[in-house]
């Protein structure tokens, strides 16, 4: 029986190198006013490319991909431990070749793409020569694909796409979008949609505006309109009607990575609130001397450690079963728990920092908004809680008597007496004979 909480020494060396590398060389990039996804910016490339090469030299580039695509093929546990380090450092995912949404888009092209699609789109995407966007969510339908109305109709040897998409992350930087559209409105609900690779410069693709989050003025969450957009028939990704299954495959591992990066962000917040608590002077000592502050520090530590262990256990289960459907309940559970843990730790960090905490000189308000985004992105928390409950309740059945169920004390006493009273009688008879 294997049951261990240690990392093998060889991989731990890699993690230790990552911690130092991210802290010393990668984190400062986030302070320079350049965007990690702006691959056409010469200054960005001059700074990022050498760091990416260092990562490649260490054999840590795009580790989620198999060796045939230039990665290490690491399982979810190793990827989770890596993402814990990458969380909270803006440029870290780009420097390590595992940035969303490019990672998920690369995975589905690798699994479902044709040789021509892989050559044209996957290879430059993996090299970070281009970036991509996942154009799924719609203004009227939210993240529920069964309510989508964007249509793709076969017109000769082209698909013609019409509709609107909302929050297509990094659309402003993207060279191509992966678009989810209805191809057969009469089919079963989860078979109505297909996925398409759509180059951004295709006539009819219009980025209406780029929406900001975290208080950004110039955001990169693109509101995209598709008007008679024609793409060749061979730009269909996977099978017609297979979009829902493809998207679920794409999102499963991504949710675990989001969770471990959230662990990394929360660890940074706990570190900063702790440093503030022991250094901020009061009339009688430091902020850390107050019991209420100690309670906030303790709650943050406990919640973070619980969440981290839950995420790693889920990652371990994915590695064990190699089947996301078997781990669906736990993936949904960590996705539902993630925004609450993140929100509560960020809120405490703000409170302990006082006026400085709510100012634009600290990142904490951005963390607070990020926690709320995590409760919406990749499916809202409420949907994931419903999934957890439905999956959990499948293991239970009706009781014979709903008024007085078999686990009531009266039934349990009767069952115990039925089991042990005959034994008592037998023992009394033996004693009588003796």
TrEMBL record:
Oligomer and partners: Homodimer.
Segments forming a coiled coil: none
Matches recorded under Gene3D superfamilies: Acyl-CoA dehydrogenase/oxidase, N-terminal domain, Butyryl-CoA Dehydrogenase, subunit A, domain 2, Butyryl-CoA Dehydrogenase, subunit A, domain 3
Protein name: Acyl-CoA dehydrogenase
Residue ranges of domain Acyl-CoA dehydrogenase/oxidase N-terminal in the record: 12-129
A Pfam family matched in the record: Acyl-CoA_dh_N
Transmembrane region(s): none
Domain Acyl-CoA oxidase/dehydrogenase middle: 133-229
Family per similarity comment: Belongs to the acyl-CoA dehydrogenase family.
């Amino acid at each position: 029986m294997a049951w261990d909480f240690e990392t093998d020494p060889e991989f731990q060396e890699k993690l230790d190198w990552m911690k130092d590398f991210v802290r010393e060389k990668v984190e400062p990039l986030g302070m320079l006013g350049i965007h990690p996804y702006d691959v056409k910016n010469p200054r960005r490339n001059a700074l990022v490319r050498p760091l990416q090469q260092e990562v490649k030299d260490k054999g840590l580039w795009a580790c989620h991909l198999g060796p045939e695509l230039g990665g290490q093929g690491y399982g979810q546990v190793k990827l989770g431990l890596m993402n814990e380090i990458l969380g909270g450092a803006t440029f870290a995912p780009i420097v390590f070749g595992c940035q969303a949404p490019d990672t998920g888009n690369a995975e589905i092209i690798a699994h479902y793409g044709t040789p021509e699609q892989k050559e044209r789109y996957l290879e430059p995407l993996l090299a970070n020569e281009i970036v991509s966007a996942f154009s799924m969510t719609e203004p009227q339908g939210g993240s529920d694909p069964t309510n989508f109305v964007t249509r793709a109709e076969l017109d000769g040897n082209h698909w013609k796409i019409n509709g609107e998409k909302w929050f297509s992350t990094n659309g402003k930087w993207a060279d191509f979008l992966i678009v989810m559209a209805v191809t057969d409105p009469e089919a079963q609900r989860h078979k109505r949609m297909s996925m398409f690779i759509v180059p951004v410069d295709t006539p009819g693709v219009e980025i209406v505006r780029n929406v900001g989050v975290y208080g950004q003025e110039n955001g990169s969450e693109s509101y995209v309109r598709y008007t008679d957009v024609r793409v060749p028939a061979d730009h269909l990704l996977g099978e017609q009607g297979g979009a829902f299954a493809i998207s679920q495959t794409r999102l499963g591992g991504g949710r675990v990575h989001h969770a471990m990066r959230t662990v990394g962000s929360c660890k940074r917040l706990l570190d900063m609130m702790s440093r503030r608590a022991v250094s901020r002077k009061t009339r009688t000592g430091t902020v850390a001397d107050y019991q209420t502050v100690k309670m906030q520090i303790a709650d943050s530590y406990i919640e973070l450690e619980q969440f981290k262990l839950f995420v790693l256990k889920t990652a371990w289960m994915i590695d064990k079963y190699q089947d996301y459907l078997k781990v669906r309940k736990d993936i949904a559970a960590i996705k539902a728990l993630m925004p609450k843990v993140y929100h509560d730790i960020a809120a405490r960090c703000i409170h302990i920092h006082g006026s400085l905490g709510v100012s634009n000189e600290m990142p904490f308000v951005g963390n607070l908004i990020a926690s709320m985004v995590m409760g919406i992105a990749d499916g809202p928390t409420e949907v994931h809680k419903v999934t957890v409950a439905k999956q959990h309740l499948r293991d239970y059945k009706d009781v014979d008597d709903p008024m007085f169920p078999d686990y009531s004390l009266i039934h349990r006493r009767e069952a115990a007496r039925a089991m042990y009273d005959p034994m008592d009688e037998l023992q009394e008879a033996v004693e009588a004979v003796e």
